[in-house]
Amino acid sequence: MADPTIAVIGAGPAGIRATEALAQHRLPVIVIDEAPKGGGQIYRQPPDAFRRSPSLRYGFEANKARALHTTIERLASAIDYRPSTLAWNVWDRQLDTLRAGKTEKVPFDFLVIATGATDRVLPVPGWTLPGVYTLGGAQIALKYQGCAIGHHTVFLGTGPLLYLVAYQYAKAGATVKAVLDVNAAAAKRRALPALAWSPSMLAKGLYYRAWLGAHGVVVEDGVTPIVIHGNGGVSELTYRRAGVETTLRCDAIGLGFGLKAETQLADLAGCRFRFDRESRQWLPERNADGESTISGVYVAGDGAGIGGADAAELWGERVGLAIAARCGRPRDTTRIATIDRQLARLAHLREGLERAFPFPSQHVSTIRADTILCRCESIRIGDAMAAIRVFDVIEMNRMKAVTRVGMGRCQGRMCSAAAAELLATESRQDVAAVGRLRAQPPVKPIPLPWSSPR
Amino acid sequence: MTERVRVDVAIVGGGIAGCSAAFHLRRNGLSVCLLEKGALGSQASGVNFGGVRQQGRHFAELPLARRSREVWGRLAELIGTDCEFVPSGHLKLARSEADLDELERYADAAAEFGLALQMISGARIRSEYPWLGESVIGASLAAEDGQANPRLVAPAFGRAARMLGADVREYTAMIETTCDGDRFRVHCARGIEVSARFLVNTAGAWGGYIAAAFGEPVPIGTTAPNMLVTEPLPSFVTRSIGVCGGDVYVRQVARGNVVLGGGHGWADLGLERSRPLTDVSTRAIDKALEVIPALKSALVIRSWAGIEGQMPDHLPVIGFSRTAPNVIHAFGFSGHGFQLGPVIGIIIAELVTNGASLSPLAAFDIGRFGGTAARPLAAAAYPAQEGE
Ligand SMILES: Cc1cc2nc3c(=O)[nH]c(=O)nc-3n(C[C@H](O)[C@H](O)[C@H](O)COP(=O)(O)OP(=O)(O)OC[C@H]3O[C@@H](n4cnc5c(N)ncnc54)[C@H](O)[C@@H]3O)c2cc1C
Ligand SMILES: Cc1cc2nc3c(=O)[nH]c(=O)nc-3n(C[C@H](O)[C@H](O)[C@H](O)COP(=O)(O)OP(=O)(O)OC[C@H]3O[C@@H](n4cnc5c(N)ncnc54)[C@H](O)[C@@H]3O)c2cc1C
With the CA atoms of A319, A321, A322 and A327 taken in that order, what torsion angle do they form, in degrees rounded to the nearest 10? Predict the structure, then answer.
C-alpha cells in the first residue's frame, strides 16, 4: 500500500510534535503554516534581523522554545514544509491553500488541524480607539518585533496571559501602569487546589504577580472597566473597583479575556462541535486519539480547546502516534499511556485556570449601548439588540444575517464571543442554545485574483 | 401535547414567497399560519445575490416581474423598510457581436411588456463606464432594475405579516399533511397541528416533496449558485452588472463590498447544506476580472452558496394543484425568484381570495410536466436564463 498523504496545518507546539511523531515513522507529511517560521504563537520566532535573545523573548520557556525550533528545522528536510502558506478551506478531502498569492489544492488522506488560538475579546466603551490592542497582539509586537504598544500601558481583562504579558513588557523596560483583572481574587483562591496540580505553573503565575507588584505596577482584581477615553488615541481608562471609580492616564491598553480556539477549518471540514461549559466555547468533538467526527481528520493543541503549550505538544504527539498506527505502523502503547497520564494532569490544571479566570459572560449586558460590538462592520450593541428584538432572533447566524455582526473580514473572530452572550441575554436563552457562527471559506481574507496573481 | 391552530390558510415555507404570501393574505383579511422549518428567509431568499432584475427574464416571467418591481418601489410604505432596495440600474454586458444582437432583440421584445431597455454602444460604454474591461463592447441598461439586501426581505415581510396578525412559526417544520374533509391537517414539528382550508406550498427547493405528496411529482433539481464577496472598496461599480451568457454577475453594496456570483456550488437538500466550490469561484473571479479589472486589488472575505429549486425549463411552478383542490404551489424559482418574491405573495393571495390571479400564470402550470396540462411552450420561446 502506498503511503497516505498526511497534511498538518499549523507549525506550533502541536503541529511540530505531530509532524515529528509521523516523521519518526517515516511517513510523508505536508506541514502548512501561515507564519514564515515555525514555533506557533507562544514560541513565535522574530524575523532574522531581530536579535533579542531567546531567553529574553521566551523567559522561563526558552528551552522549550529552542527545542521546538530545532525540531522543525531538523525535520524541514525530511518533510514537505510550507511556511508562509495559509490553509483557507477544507472540502472533499482537499485543502485550499494560498502561497505567494497563488491558490493550490492539497489533497489529503489524513489531516491534523493544529491551528492554535486567538485572543478572546470583549468590547469596552472606547475599545476601538487607536492604542487598544489585543493582549496577544501586544505580545506579538514585543516577541516578534521587539517593540511595545505604548509608553504607558495598562493591561485589562483576565486570564494568565494578562499577567504574563504585563511581566514581559515590564521586563523589557516598558512602563506598565496597571494590570486590571475583571475576575475577583476570591475566584483565584478557590482555584488554588486545582492549580496546585502544576506547582511550577502556579509558581510562575505567583512570581509574575509578585514581581509586578514589587516593581510598582498597580495590580487589581475584581475590576469593572467603565470607559476608555481618548481623542484619536487612548488617553485614559476609567474603571470601578469596590464601588470606587478610578481614572488612569495611559496611551495604550492590552485587552484580553482568555483565548478562543481557532476552529474554522474544523468546521469547514464538517466536524461536529460541542459546547464546552468550562471555557464557554464551541469545540470540535474528538475521541481519545484526537480524531474528530470526520474520519481521518484530527484536531490537536489549542485549536481543539485551550490547553496551553505543554498540552499542545502532548496532543500533537498523541495524534501523530494515532495516525502512524492507522497507517500500519506499530502502535506505541507505552508512550501513548504516558502521554494520556500527563494530559489528564494538565486537564486538571486547565479546570483550575478556567475557575480562576472565568469568562466574564455577564459583562456584555452591562456595557453602554453605544459601544461598538462588531469592529469590522461598526455595529453598536444597541443596534444589535434592537434587531434581535425586531426579528425575534434566537440563533447566531440569524443574528449575523439581520445585524451584520460577524459579517466582516474577521468573520466574527473578534466579536462572536460577545455577540453570543448578548444574544443569549436578549433572547433569554442559555448561551449554548444560540449556537455558533458557521465558518465560510476563505477563513481569512485572500486576494481576489487567487488563481492568477498579478 | 398537541397545539392546535385553526386558520384559513397554512403556508409551508417562509422564504420570500411564503412571507410575502402571509402578508398579502392578511391584508385580504384571511387568517394565516406560516410554517418555516428554520428561520424566515434562511434558505435561498436570505443568501442570494440580491439582484432585483427584470432584464433578461423569460417573457413568461416579465409580466410578473413588472408587477413585482412596482412593489419593490414601495416596500417602505408597505412593510416599514425598503430592505436596502436601490434602483441602481442593471447593465447587461455584451462581449461579442452576437451578444449585441441578442441584447437588441431582447430589448425590442421587452418593450412590448413595458420594460424600457437602453442600448449603449462601444464609445459610450467607454466614456460612461470607464471601469469596465476592454472585452465589453456594448450593453443594455435597465434603468429601473436594481439590488436589495436579501437578508432583510423575507424577515421583513414576515414581521409585517405578524404585525397584521399572522401566526408565524419559525423552527417549525411541516412533517406531513393529510386531508380531513374540506380541511387540511398539517402536522408539524414541536407538536403543532394546523387545520386550514388552503395549503400553500412555498417550500422552495423542497417544494417538490410537497407536490409529490399530493400525487403530482415534478422533475425538480437542486442548484447552488456560487457567490463571493470582497471587503469594502471605494464605490465605483455604479450599476448591478450581468453579462450575456450569465457566467458572472457583480454588484457593489452601499458599504462598499463587491458581491459576485457565477456558476454553481454544491448542495444537499436532505442535509440542508450548501458550499461554494473553489474551481467554480475561480472561474467566476476570472470572468469578473475580465469585465471589471479594478477588482484585481480586492480581498475576498467570504464565499457561499444557497439551495435553490431548479426546473428543467427554468420556470417556477405557480398556481393551483392539478390533483388536490385548494393546494397552491409557488416553488422552483430556478435561480431568479428573489425579484419575483413580492408579487408571488400577491398572486397567492389573489388565488386564495378570488380563485384566479391578475397575472398570466399559464406558463407556470404544474401540469406542464405531466401531460395533464396545456402543451409546453416551444423550446425556441426560451431564451437562455441566467441565475441571478
Ligand atoms: C497571541 C497569542 C499569544 C500567546 N502567548 C502565550 C504565551 O506567551 N505563553 C503561553 O503559555 N501561551 C501563550 N498563548 C497560548 C498558546 O497559543 C498556546 O499555549 C500554544 O501556542 C498552543 O500551541 P498550538 O500548537 O496549539 O497552537 P499555536 O502555537 O497557536 O500554533 C498554531 C499555528 O497554526 C498556524 N495557523 C493557524 N491557522 C492557520 C491557517 N488557516 N493556515 C495556516 N496556518 C495556520 C499559525 O500560524 C500558528 O503557527 C498565546 C496565544 C496567543 C493567541
Ligand atoms: C446563491 C443564490 C443567488 C441567487 N441570486 C438571485 C438574484 O440575484 N436574483 C433573483 O431574483 N433570484 C436569485 N436567486 C434565487 C432566489 O433566491 C430564489 O428563487 C428565491 O429566494 C426563492 O424564494 P422561495 O421563498 O421560493 O424559497 P426559499 O427562500 O428557499 O424558501 C423556502 C422555505 O421553505 C422552507 N421549507 C421547506 N420545506 C419545509 C417544510 N417541510 N416545513 C417548513 N418549512 C419548509 C425552507 O426552510 C425555506 O426557508 C438566488 C438564489 C441563490 C441560492
Answer: 130
**Core vs surface per residue B169-192: b (16+ CB within 10 A) or e:** bbebbbeebeeeeebbbbebeeeb
User: Does a structural domain hold residue B85?
Assistant: no
Nearest to B301 among A390, A397, A409 (CB): A409
The pLDDT value given to residue A48: 73
Strand duo A252-257 + A132-134: pairing:
parallel
Band of pLDDT at residue A424, cut at 50, 70 and 90? very high
Which residue(s) pair with A299 in the sheet? A113
User: Total domain count for chain B?
Assistant: 2
Best of B259, B281, B290, B291 to disrupt the A interface (most A CBs within 10 Å) is B281
Q: Does this complex have an ipTM over 0.90?
A: yes
Same domain for A171 and A253? yes
Domain that holds residue B27: 3-47+151-219+312-381
Provide the chain B residues 262-281 that lie in CB contact (below 8 A) with chain A. 275-278
CB contacts of A387 in chain B (<8 Å) are: none
Q: Is B306 in the pocket of ligand 2 (CB under 6 A)?
A: yes
- The answer to whether B96 contacts chain A (CB < 8 Å) is no
Cα dihedral sign, B10-B14-B17-B22: positive
Task: Read off the pTM.
Answer: 0.95
Provide the residue range defining the domain that includes A406.
361-434
When pLDDT is cut at 50, 70 and 90, the band that residue B90 belongs to is: very high
Tens digit of pLDDT for each residue in A115-126?
999 999 999 999
pLDDT digits (tens, 9 = 90+) for B145-173: 999 999 999 999 999 999 999 999 999 99
Q: Are A119 and A137 in contact (CB under 8 A)?
A: yes
Mean pLDDT of chain A: 93
The response to whether residue B61 sits with its C-beta less than 6 Å from ligand 2 reads no
* Mean pLDDT within A241-252: 96
Question: What is the rounded distance in angstroms from the CA atom of residue A208 to the CA atom of residue A160?
Answer: 10
Q: Is A342 part of a structural domain of the chain? A: no
pLDDT of residue B378: 34
CB nearest B231 (choices: A402, A409, A452): A409
Report CB contact under 8 Å: A442, B296: no
Instruction: Please list every residue in chain B whose beta carbon sits closer than 8 Å to the beta carbon of residue A445.
Output: 231, 299-301
Residues of A in contact with B228 (CB under 8 A): 448
